[in-house]
Design a protein that fits this description.
Layout: E1 2-4, E2 7-8, H1 25-28, H2 32-50, H3 71-84, H4 94-105, H5 110-117, H6 121-128, H7 133-149
Antiparallel strand pairs: 1-2
Helix pairs in contact: 4-5, 5-6
């Protein structure tokens, strides 16, 4: 499938069983389901207009002919949104790391955060939740309180 001149989208199996999941997008950002339904309706209109030229690729983000767009298009849009908001442009993948850390600091259990992000717990803890001296001290203090309470 073409995603631009000379490019093709690789569609492989997921990295792990944890990668295949249902993401509760409406709980994260109300209105997402409505936006996806509007996108599907627009794509149906595009499909009718294009007739047999439309590529039923099965992808969600496509151009007017149903072809997948090149991933760099999304990255360029992301950088533009960051700039417009007056924020530093970080790699789009770094957002996953930020979300994982936010969930961790909000007290979400690692298994639950990993499940939402499509990680195994081991991967989640090893790559997405940094270990810090402050975190170790906080854990030691919490354990001390638990032990003191059990006396």
């Amino acid at each position: 499938m073409k995603t631009g001149v000379g490019y093709a989208t690789a569609r492989d199996d997921t990295k792990s069983d944890a990668s295949t999941r249902t993401v509760m997008v409406e709980a994260m950002h109300p209105g997402t389901v409505a936006a996806m339904k509007a996108l599907r309706a627009r794509q149906a209109t595009d499909r009718l207009a294009a007739g047999p030229a439309y590529d039923n690729s099965g992808l969600v983000v496509v151009d007017a002919l149903g072809h997948g767009i090149h991933p760099e298009v999304v990255s360029l849009r992301w950088r533009g949104l960051c700039k417009a908001a007056g924020l530093p442009a970080i790699r789009l993948h770094a957002v996953r790391h930020t979300l994982a850390l936010m969930l961790h600091r909000a007290g979400v259990a690692p298994a639950d955060a990993a499940a939402m992000l499509g990680h195994t717990v081991g991967t989640h803890l090893a790559y997405y939740v940094p270990k810090t001296e402050t975190g170790a001290a906080t854990a030691a203090t919490a354990l001390g309180r638990l032990l003191a309470a059990s006396r």
